[in-house]
Amino acid sequence: MKLSSVTTMLTFVGGAVSQAAAFNITAISAANNTARLECWQLASPPISGRGAVNFDLGDFDKAFVGIIPPNTTTGTINNAAQVQYSLIIAGLVHISTPHSGLPANLNDVWITGGRQGMLIAADLKEIAAQGHVTTFPGSERTIIAQFPIAGNKPPAHRILHAGPCTWKDLAEL
Ligand SMILES: *[C@@H]1O[C@H](CO)[C@@H](O)[C@H](O)[C@H]1NC(C)=O
Ligand SMILES: *[C@@H]1O[C@H](CO)[C@@H](O)[C@H](O)[C@H]1NC(C)=O
Ligand SMILES: *[C@@H]1O[C@H](CO)[C@@H](O)[C@H](O)[C@H]1NC(C)=O
């Protein structure tokens, strides 16, 4: 059997299983002892199952959900208290990293709740003396489910680029 036929057969047996790209997520990371936004590509490979393409996110410690009042437009500079995934379910979040030293257009991200509402916060105080500022300026409540990562370590990843993930990086979500 020629290799091309094997490939065809596997594709057929696999049915609708698609070859998804890796999972990208905006991260509040740190460099030069200040917080900065980066677009990370997680090392977890896509795994087909349950009719989905699945990406392993690891283990969590004491997850919680927060409800933030509408029009929360004043924010103070802060660090991630622990390395965590944030799932913004509803509302609007604005994050800025004013001390990153990167060009200004890379220091800002607006995240609306929903499809592209995932984020990793990893700018712990010990690696970022200057953290990030968060506000929740939506006219409705913002709801965020927080999943602190067991061991307080970011997931294995590579940095796609400085600044938040773009529409192109999140196109398949
Ligand atoms: C850290 O700062 C130095 C000096 O300003 C700069 O040359 C270097 O590129 C910075 N590193 C990163 C990762 O931005
Ligand atoms: C939030 O701001 C909007 C627009 O200014 C306003 O219509 C709304 O009443 C405010 N909501 C609260 C709870 O203050
Ligand atoms: C991740 O980013 C790359 C580069 O922008 C893109 O090709 C890929 O489709 C993205 N993955 C998803 C799941 O959106």
From TrEMBL:
<feature type="signal peptide">
    <location>
        <begin position="1"/>
        <end position="22"/>
    </location>
</feature>
<protein>
    <recommendedName>
        <fullName>Small secreted protein</fullName>
    </recommendedName>
</protein>
<keyword id="KW-0732">Signal</keyword>
